[in-house]
Amino acid sequence: KRTSRLIQDIDDELEMTTKDLIGTLNVSESTLYRWRKKQLVRYRYTEGGDVRYFFKSIVIATKCNRLRVSGMRNDEVLGRLNRFKDNLIMSSCLNPKNRQL
Question: What number is the average pLDDT over the span 43-57?
Fold first, then answer.
């Protein structure tokens, strides 16, 4: 139960950069712009003007069929997102100085 709460907290707090999404889902910046413009996913701007996308909102939009990635089924999109999260958690555990969560 404690582990599931921790995973839920990570999902709630995790944000992805434009570069993260381009690399993880093989989408273009134009696609990300369209997602923002159509309000398909939640995002915010950093003080420096960069965009951060809320991980949980991308997952929910995919599960609800609001978000489509060309050439990929929803289960593949979700798998890639989960691998991104798992890799981030593992790298955070291995390199405590680089904690991003």
Answer: 97
Name the residue among 85, 20, 80 with its Cα closest to residue 51. 20
Place of tokens 């839920």: 8
Kindly list the structural domains of the chain, giving each domain's residue range(s) and its CATH number in brackets, ordered by start: 2-98 (1.10.1660)
Residue 24 vs residue 4, higher pLDDT: 24
Residue where the block lists tokens 């291995």: 94
**Contact yes or no for 37/92 (Cβ under 8 A):** no
Neighbour count for residue 78 (Cβ, 10 Å):
15
List phi, psi (to 5°) of 24: -75, -45
In the predicted model, what is the mean pLDDT of the chain?
A: 88
Dist CA 89 CA 21 (whole Å): 17
| Per-residue tokens: 21 | 């999404």
pLDDT in tens, 10-31: 667 799 999 999 999 999 999 9
